[in-house]
Backbone:
């Protein structure tokens, strides 16, 4: 049967447009604006899901975002909240947490075993025997969780964006709308956020039939929607508060990270359940849920109802039910209906039987409630079960109290105390920039709510301008709105405190008895409030139960910490659009054209090698061979490039580097080693001296920014007259290397490359192809070579021209891997590969790079101390040429007499030497060239290698320094 | 935001001016000395700005007269002119400030044409200058090595917002 009613005055559905969805194969028809749950109800389906632990059948409960009884999944989403997510045409869903569907769930009878599945049963019951633990773990893991994640799914990222406003109003109910309107009319830029699909809040469901607010409703809505100073976001949840009013708003299109000058919290309340036997059977729901069904979706909640109430709102809901054609067989008022005012009288006048000082003890029904049993309350607030009154009904509505949505008020460190007069937590004071309005502020009368919101809006707008507004705001209500203990025990239990986690009253009390008598501890042990609802319907009752058990007050018991996210937020929204900044050099297109295989070096993308041969290794070896025998070129634009200039520039360079730089001649280069205050190697590079007061300093690829920061800081600290400019991205560099380098480069530049004019380690400026360049004759790869530095805009042209003009020499671009191998053969250290966070220059075999005669350089004092303490040294090693076993790797250990004796930092198969060779730290200062060391491979095998002197290749350095100007034969 | 247009600015040159004598050199230009982080504009996109006591930036049309004027003055001791090769872009269209909210935490809605803005955009450090004659245009630049990434990323974002 359909529960659809005739048209309601403020319904959210468009009856002119139908939508068709399918839930577990069953087709259903609804209207545009229907949620999944309202569509199901319109089609006579009340069973919306299974509970998490006992797989009990569940129906609509809050009809808001406060429970997960109606939780579905499909291929795209693991958690589809039926109560609030729209039924879109063609949508196909199945229930979450079922095996075999909602109706025929394989675990539907699990509830029968509930006495064995108490809180923490897996700690208590599955502890022994030990050998079965993996089995239990597998079962628990398979059973736990809601929704199945498709690990191959790649969609769902929603771009984040930033938002700014003077006043952010959370909640578009009566107080929130009034606040937004007042703030905007005061000239503030306002953002109004509400989790519902439409603004209006309780005005449109709790007060839908209240003629006295009809004008106010339309005036507020119109003012909000038509004010250009108000940006409205519906179906959007403020999920957290962070310092300085930094608030993420989760919208259907992604998260908006809002920075608000002022915030007005008009977040309202969550209705709280009464706890009685079988209070989860479909048909038992919040009174406000019934009002939402009727007002928003024109759904009749049931035919015959029983109610339990403890405030005036319950009677307002009763009137709505009666108007919708629901017969009310009984209302159990936990107190006296005479205290409820005119609404209770109106209900009574319609012939409804009201039982004062009664509560609901239990309900009957398996698939749907069939009756409710009422009992009178005794003086101690417990039910007198000797006097039962049972009434038939197919719906039970609860209106026994509220819990304020104070989560983000807690997060911003508002001083929140329990207000016993109202029966709820309320902020006693708020931090600067934060306002609370409406029912969350303890103001309940609808006209007062609107006045409170308007006052808060005015105050917030004034505060945004740095002013204050003298506004008289309504006082909180003096009438209690929430019953102090609407919780009743039952010998058969099944009286649920937390619907997400199937926590029964006895579970919670037993947990307290077991010693978990602190609100935070009991939460974690019992898992109350740890489900997707995050305690929205269970935290307040949990506090009340624990307070009663411990004999403490509500304030002494306290509330659990309300951390962001206030509401589950999709990972795809948290991730947002991926911004992964990537740097490429101007030669990128050429690299791609030459089949480069790229690797990441920090933010840079660098050619690892060029995929020109059959295998990676063959490609790398071909590149090595080209450099050793002919000509190669590598893009080294990623090196840091810093200009240091000014009268004190020589002094700065002397203090930054371990080597003396101030005595370098203009037009020369020098190796630059940098250590920190602890003497640890942090960087190396080359320094070029352009002028007395002008140096050009290259760093390793990853060090340009930290090196520049250090330079700037030190120049300021030292008070020297020098300046530094980081030109890393502005200049590009390439290294032309190989015995043919000079011969091929000479005709392409106006710089004299002769040995006399341009010796090894010199640097010269001039032009190539008409472009300004600096050439530096340095040799990281151990061959005659020129580093060419030029402007970024000229680099691609120079590179391309070089490849073209040197093609007859067999020039090959080579990548990082070939360069690593070439420098390894030459015995050069790579900082951060052959050094670690403790390595000093003595250990790395570079005492020659430390000029202790200088008065000062960073790390000098530490190195003075460290020098005599040296306990390891970097040495070269080689495997026998005949070796054909497993592959030695970087970080493999050296073993001596069964003990650790060092580790490998670099190792590779050298095509030049036809064997593996590498660098290793040897923890033995007595180790000598010619000694044997054992390398332990992945499989544990020990392989003997021989320690050898460095460099492996061209130990006399002839290939870099001799006057080579021709072919390989001349070199030889 | 459907009429957003992103173009690479090809006809501009940029200079980074440093040194103890740089303030005097900049102050002697015909366009006058800029205030700290304020734009001293000339022409459509030309401007100077000060980012430190001895640090200035100059953007001019290619082979522009102000840059030439400065080059002549920078020959003096202790004024260093480094050419900047920034990737330069012009974003135009009425919704450019809204679009920027998707890539930068800076509140561009509060920006006007008087300021030299430096902000992080899509993970890259970027400077901005709102056009002084057309507020629906903004010139911005970044390290050239990030230019390709930034251009591709912004094109994607523009496509995304156009589809909204």
Residues:
């Amino acid at each position: 049967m359909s529960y659809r009613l005739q048209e309601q005055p403020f319904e959210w559905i468009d009856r002119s447009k139908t939508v068709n969805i399918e839930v577990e194969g069953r087709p259903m028809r609804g209207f545009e604006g229907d949620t999944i749950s309202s569509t199901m109800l319109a089609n006579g389906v009340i069973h919306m899901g299974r509970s998490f632990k006992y797989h009990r059948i569940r129906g609509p409960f809050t009809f808001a975002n406060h429970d997960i009884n109606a939780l579905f999944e499909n291929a795209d989403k693991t958690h589809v909240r039926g109560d609030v997510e729209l039924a879109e045409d063609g949508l196909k869903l199945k229930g979450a947490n079922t095996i075999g569907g909602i109706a025929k769930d394989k675990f539907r009878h699990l509830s029968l075993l509930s006495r064995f599945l108490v809180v923490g049963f897996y700690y208590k019951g599955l502890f022994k025997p030990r050998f079965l633990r993996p089995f239990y773990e597998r079962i628990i893991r398979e059973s736990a969780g809601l929704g199945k994640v498709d690990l191959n799914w790649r969609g769902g990222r929603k771009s984040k964006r930033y938002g700014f406003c003077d006043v952010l109003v959370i909640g578009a109910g009566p107080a929130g709308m009034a606040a937004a309107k007042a703030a905007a009319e005061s000239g503030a830029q306002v953002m109004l956020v509400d989790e519902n699909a439409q603004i209006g809040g309780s005005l449109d469901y709790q007060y839908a039939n209240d003629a006295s607010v009809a004008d106010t409703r339309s005036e507020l809505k119109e003012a909000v929607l038509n004010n250009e100073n108000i940006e409205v976001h519906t179906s959007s949840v403020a999920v957290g508060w962070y310092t300085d009013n930094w608030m993420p708003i989760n919208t259907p299109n992604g998260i908006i990270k809002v920075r608000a000058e002022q915030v007005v919290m008009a977040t309202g309340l969550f209705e709280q359940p009464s706890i009685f036997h079988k209070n989860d059977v479909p048909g038992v729901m919040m009174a406000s849920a019934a009002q939402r069904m009727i007002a928003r979706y024109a759904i009749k909640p049931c035919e015959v109802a029983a109610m339990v109430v403890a405030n005036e709102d319950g009677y307002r809901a009763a009137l709505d039910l009666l108007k919708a054609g629901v017969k009310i067989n009984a209302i159990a008022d936990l107190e006296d209906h005479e205290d409820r005012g005119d609404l209770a009288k109106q209900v009574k006048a319609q012939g409804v039987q009201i039982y004062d000082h009664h509560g609901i003890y239990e309900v009957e029904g398996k698939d749907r409630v069939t009756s409710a049993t009422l009992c009178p309350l005794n003086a101690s607030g417990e039910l007198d079960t000797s006097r039962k009154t049972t009434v038939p009904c197919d719906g039970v509505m609860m209106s026994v109290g509220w819990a304020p949505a104070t989560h983000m008020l807690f997060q911003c460190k508002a001083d929140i105390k329990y207000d016993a007069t109202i029966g709820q937590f309320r902020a006693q004071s708020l931090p600067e920039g934060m306002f609370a309005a409406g029912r969350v502020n303890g103001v309940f009368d609808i006209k007062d709510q609107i006045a409170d919101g308007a006052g808060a809006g005015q105050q917030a707008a004034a505060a945004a301008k740095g002013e204050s507004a003298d506004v008289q705001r309504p006082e909180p209500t003096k009438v209690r709105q929430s019953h102090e203990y609407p919780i009743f025990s039952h010998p058969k239990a099944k009286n649920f405190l937390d619907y997400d986690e199937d926590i029964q009253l006895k579970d919670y009390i037993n947990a307290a008895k077991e010693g978990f008598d602190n609100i935070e501890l009991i939460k974690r042990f019992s898992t109350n409030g740890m489900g997707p609802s995050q305690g929205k319907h269970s935290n307040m009752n949990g506090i009340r139960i624990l307070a009663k058990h411990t004999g403490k007050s509500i304030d002494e018991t306290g509330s659990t910490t309300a951390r962001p996210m206030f509401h589950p937020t999709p990972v795809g929204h948290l991730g947002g659009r991926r911004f992964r900044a990537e740097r490429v050099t101007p030669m990128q297109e050429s690299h791609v054209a030459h089949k480069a295989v790229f690797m990441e070096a920090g933010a840079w993308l660098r050619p690892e090698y060029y995929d020109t041969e059959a295998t990676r290794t063959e490609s790398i070896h071909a590149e090595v061979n080209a450099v050793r025998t002919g000509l190669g070129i590598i893009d080294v634009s990623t090196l840091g490039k810093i200009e240091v200039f000014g009268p004190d520039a020589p002094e700065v360079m002397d203090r930054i580097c371990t080597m003396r730089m101030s005595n370098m001649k203009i037009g020369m280069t020098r190796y630059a080693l940098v250590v920190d205050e602890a003497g640890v190697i942090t960087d190396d590079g080359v320094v070029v001296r352009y002028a007395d007061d002008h140096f050009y300093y290259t760093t390793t690829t990853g060090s340009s920014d930290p090196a520049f920061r250090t330079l700037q800081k030190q120049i300021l600290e030292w008070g020297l007259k020098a300046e530094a400019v980081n030109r890393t991205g502005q200049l590009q560099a390439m290294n032309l290397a190989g015995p043919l380098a000079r011969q091929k480069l000479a005709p392409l530049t106006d710089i004299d490359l002769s040995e006399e004019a341009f010796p090894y380690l010199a640097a010269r400026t001039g032009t190539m192809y008409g472009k300004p360049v600096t050439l530096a004759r340095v040799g990281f790869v151990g061959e005659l070579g020129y580093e060419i530095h030029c402007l970024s805009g000229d680099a691609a042209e120079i590179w391309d021209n070089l490849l073209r003009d040197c093609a007859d020499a067999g020039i090959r671009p080579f990548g990082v891997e070939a360069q690593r191998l070439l420098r390894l053969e030459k015995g050069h250290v790579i900082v951060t590969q052959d050094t670690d966070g403790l390595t000093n220059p003595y250990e790395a075999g570079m005492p020659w790079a430390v000029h202790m005669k200088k008065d000062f350089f960073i790390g000098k004092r530490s190195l003075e101390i460290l020098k005599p303490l040296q306990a390891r040294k970097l040495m070269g090693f080689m495997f026998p040429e005949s070796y054909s076993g497993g592959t030695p790797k970087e970080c493999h250990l050296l073993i001596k007499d069964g003990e650790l004796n060092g580790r490998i930092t670099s190792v590779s198969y050298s095509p030049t030497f036809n064997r593996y060779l590498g660098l290793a730290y040897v923890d033995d200062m007595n180790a000598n060239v010619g000694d044997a060391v054992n390398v332990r491979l992945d499989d544990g095998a020990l392989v003997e290698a021989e320690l050898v002197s460095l460099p492996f290749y061209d130990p006399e350095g002839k290939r870099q320094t001799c006057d080579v100007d021709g072919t390989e034969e001349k070199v030889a | 935001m459907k009429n957003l247009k992103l173009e690479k600015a090809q006809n501009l040159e940029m200079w980074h001016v440093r040194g103890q004598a740089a303030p005097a050199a900049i102050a002697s230009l015909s366009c006058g000395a800029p205030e700290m982080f304020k734009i001293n504009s000339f022409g459509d996109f030309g401007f100077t700005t000060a980012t430190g006591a001895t640090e200035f930036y100059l953007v001019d049309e290619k082979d522009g007269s102000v840059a030439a004027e400065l080059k002549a003055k920078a020959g003096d001791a202790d004024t260093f002119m480094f050419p900047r090769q920034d990737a330069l872009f012009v974003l135009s269209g009425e919704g450019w400030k809204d679009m920027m909210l998707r890539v930068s935490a800076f509140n561009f809605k509060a920006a006007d044409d008087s300021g030299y803005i430096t902000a992080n955009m899509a993970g890259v450090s970027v400077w901005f200058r709102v056009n002084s004659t057309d507020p629906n245009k903004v010139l911005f630049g970044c390290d050239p090595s990030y230019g390709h990434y930034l251009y591709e990323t912004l094109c994607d974002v523009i496509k995304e917002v156009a589809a909204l």
